[in-house]
Amino acid sequence: MELSKIGLCLGFLFFVFLHGVLADCSTATRKVHRYNFSLRETSFTRLCTTKRMLTVNGQWPGPKIQVCKGDTAFVHVHNAGKYGVTIHWHGVKQPRNPWSDGPENVTQCPIQPGKSFTYEVTFSDEEGTVWWHAHSDWSRATVHGAIVVLPSNGTTYPFRKPDAEKVLVLGEWYNGDLKEIIYNATETGAAPVESNAYTINGQPGFPNKCSKETTYRLRVQHGKTYLIRLINAVMNEEMFFGIANHTLRVVAQDGAYIKPITTNYIMTSPGQTMDILITANQPPSYYYIAASPFFDAGSIATYDSSNTSAILEYTGIFAPPASPPYPSLPNIRDRAAADKFTNRIRALASRAHPINVPKKIDKKLFMTVSLNQILCPGATCGGPDGNRLSSSLNNISFATSTIDILQAYYRSLPGVFTKDFPDRPPYVFNYTGDVGNNTLYTYQGTNVTMINYGAAVEIVFQGTNVESGEFHPMHLHGYSFYSVGTGYGNYDETTSPKTYNLKDPPEVNTVGLPRNGWVAIRFIANNPGVWFLHCHLERHASWGMGTVLIVKNGPTKETSIRPPPPNMPRCSN
Ligand code: C2O
Ligand code: CU
Question: What GO cellular component is one of the record's annotations (predicted)?
Fold first, then answer.
């Protein structure tokens, strides 16, 4: 063999070797990964409707990022689309580096068409599944993808290694243009239209129209065990999920391990991820994988009530069934079924995966979470009572600033935000009772909460019955937190804390606030930065159900925000 051919062979072997390392973290340390994201309009057909929509690299769901715990990924984003966009790395804490976190006008201005920005995605203690999505208007409906974080070199899963891993992304398909949908809603003050179908890996599946041939198929081999990494990228509804005749074993949530839960269905909120083991132990055939909405809200709220499905398809020879079995999922209003699953979730809290729940609290925040109205002159708007729909935390509807809050904070630019977000609701009333017109009309502002570095923080989210009591998945950037307690009705200072679980509460980045109930979370503010906190229902977030926590620098360089990278996207004004 000629020398050059030997070189080629060696090169090829080295290539295979490197990719082996990337896939399982088992040998050498490869700490830096590079990805290229090209944002562009791509043509897609679903439900017999063709439209152009914004995607990354022409894919929906977008490309998967795979790293080992503690690695770094540089993601070069080029915007070849028509509008400014940002990308958020949902569930990645980005220690000291809010510059790469992504929420538009909170930590950066958008990447304008024709421009690029390289995100430095810094992984720390996340392990399991997190994800990425656009964080500008409603672009996240089509711009999202999985992030898989494998155990680092020398460590393993806290369960028997699965034979293979699969990503399933739950999403929503809209026949219309997303930009128009949110624009129309903002113009009229009415609720945005609902989606036309839910999707599994971009496919509506049976029984949606024109979807039979394109249904996503998850191929399994009899006797093997699979780790399903399920991401809820749905815009506006919580979802039930199940697989006909197969038991689910849930082992992780939001990039942290939990005590395994064996169940026939799960409930997952937008923003959450669940890692689920399944064993292909049924007679080789086809079985439906399905998801259906869970919607706990009053009558004014509308929703997409359809189901989406994929097919669990065994390899081998068998006569395909005329109608494969379909999983039985709880009813759309079945709050008891949703709670039954959620209340079983406990942190793994093992020696290899310890937890650290703050016991003594330095900073307490009590926040009402409400839907509201903004008065419309002459009652000519499209929302209830001729007014505009709105939403708030402590009766402040978050108003997006024109330049990002992070920059304004870092450079001490005045007039962008105020540091006076209230620690308690400005009005005290029976939040979950007959609320009348209490706080129906909300105030708009860019008010933030300042938190000292290292403080032990507790936030109690109190759902209210103002306008319409609804379920809210609350999400915090820059952190994961312990969900220590929850209940229905009003939070009670004396009795509610007695029900807390401080032993093994789930460590999550998105928590479900039950309709007309409360949920308490705790964390140590050890990540300095400007961090968005908001409801992950896009409808509510667009109306202002968000706020910002600024965690101040600690005493050293290692406890302070890093300097901004060069080439941050420029703010136009
Ligand atoms: Cu997944 Cu601020 O969001
Ligand atoms: Cu909400």
Answer: apoplast
